[in-house]
């Protein structure tokens, strides 16, 4: 009965929701487009059925039921589908159950996108189709190995190179909007250089809308287990003083006298991150939205001479946790434990500082493999476990390979291949459909037919290529 009802509504609906970005390319890989959760949630949302929200911590715990053992795989670690398949197989043998695969570096795409151009390293030219899809291959290989695949994107890095981006289809954002670059105190935009990234300004409405479209593009068409945000920050404390930012800040300050620029920038960035999480959860409610954040939030120990996320990058990671802007934080605690506890950049001290946020969101320790030898790595994982963190993510794959540590990881630290959370089954989906049917009969239905949403729901329920993950 429920299915028949859905089919009737789907057939009668003709228009796409007006508030959704148009990010549906004709040649998307449909077989990995939509998971079962997308349809069920879309149905419930459209019928306006009230749900009791789950506590954030409970929702995260149900999503990640075992210790998270993740590794960052950068965009420089692969150049072919064979590379990625080998990486996934080796990661599984090393005991990892999560892979954070970088698929966006400088406002470009390592996946098929209608929003941003193909990354130049894939085929030698920005926008040139490489003939394969790294994200699709990564998902397929990771899932075949019973691991989770988290799509890792650099959020605010717009470009790197002596010259601006060249022509491409679609056009690069800094070719269309060079005014989106951050500016210094004099109002001068960042110059192009091989030595540093050119950042885009996350406080600008145009930038925010573009990033929302990027996230919607990935989460709508790829069966990701998570979206991982990196470089979700400003490049420096005295940035950005571009003309539009000044105008927007002046308007905000008029409404709130006494507001300072850094506070306004932190609020804008926090709001953006929260909206990106919402975008992902609209179609993949069980996907984990995580963020790699600066390992020193604030220097409350008087270490001095250290970079602080809150002050130097306007990255209020603790607020992200408190406000539920993310599902998980991965503080990049890239320094080893010190001989005496509490010394400058001590791994143990910083881990303890982030640990209490685990009552709100998942906390995974970001560990720099180059911080020391294998015994240092072993001790850091032990500290993360002692502090009750949800797991660890190691930076990065290339260093683990170079040092020949993959085998030792599996034997000595991760204790062999780790089991990820239990996968959903067809029986579970059928049970969910029955529950939904009962709720439909009990609810007062308010029909608002919208073609894309209803077809998404219908396909999610009936397709033979559902990925239960």
Question: TL;DR?
Answer:
The chain is an alpha/beta fold. The protein has two domains: 1-56 and 429-469, no CATH class; 66-420, TIM Barrel, CATH 3.20.20.
Explain the overall architecture:
The structure is a single chain. The protein is of the alpha/beta class. It folds into two domains: 97 residues, no CATH class; 355 residues, Glycosidases (TIM Barrel). The protein contains 18 helices and ten strands. Strand 9, helix 14 and strand 10 form a beta-alpha-beta unit. Helix 2 crosses helix 18 and helix 4 runs parallel beside helix 6.
Topology:
Layout: H1 2-12, H2 36-46, H3 56-63, E1 68-73, H4 81-93, E2 98-104, H5 120-123, H6 134-144, E3 148-154, E4 157-159, H7 173-176, E5 198-199, H8 205-221, E6 226-230, H9 243-255, H10 261-283, E7 288-294, H11 309-312, H12 317-322, E8 328-333, H13 347-354, E9 362-368, H14 374-386, E10 391-395, H15 397-403, H16 406-413, H17 426-442, H18 451-462
Parallel strand pairs: 1-2, 1-10, 2-3, 3-6, 6-7, 7-8, 8-9, 9-10
Antiparallel strand pairs: 4-5
